[in-house]
Design a protein that fits this description.
The chain is mainly alpha-helical. Helices cover 39% and strands 0% of the residues. The N and C termini lie far apart (38 Å).
């Protein structure tokens, strides 16, 4: 084995800015997106919760759940 790090590895490069955004800044998102961002299982009960959250908070429904 070579002790030198692999110079072709991209692990040491920063994540591109476009990959750090949820897409809710202006793009469409769904109740399923909100459920997944909350860490819950996608099921009818949680989708209904997400739809209510979107109706009440708009885009913030998703953004508040993301780190």
């Amino acid at each position: 084995m070579n002790a030198e790090p692999d110079k072709t590895s991209r692990d040491d490069l920063p994540t591109p800015d476009r990959a750090l955004h949820s897409g809710s800044e202006g793009g469409a998102f769904t109740a399923e997106d909100v459920v997944l961002a909350s860490g819950r299982d996608v099921n009818p009960k949680n989708l209904a919760w997400a739809e209510r959250r979107i109706a009440e908070r708009g885009r913030a429904a998703l953004e508040e759940l993301l780190p």
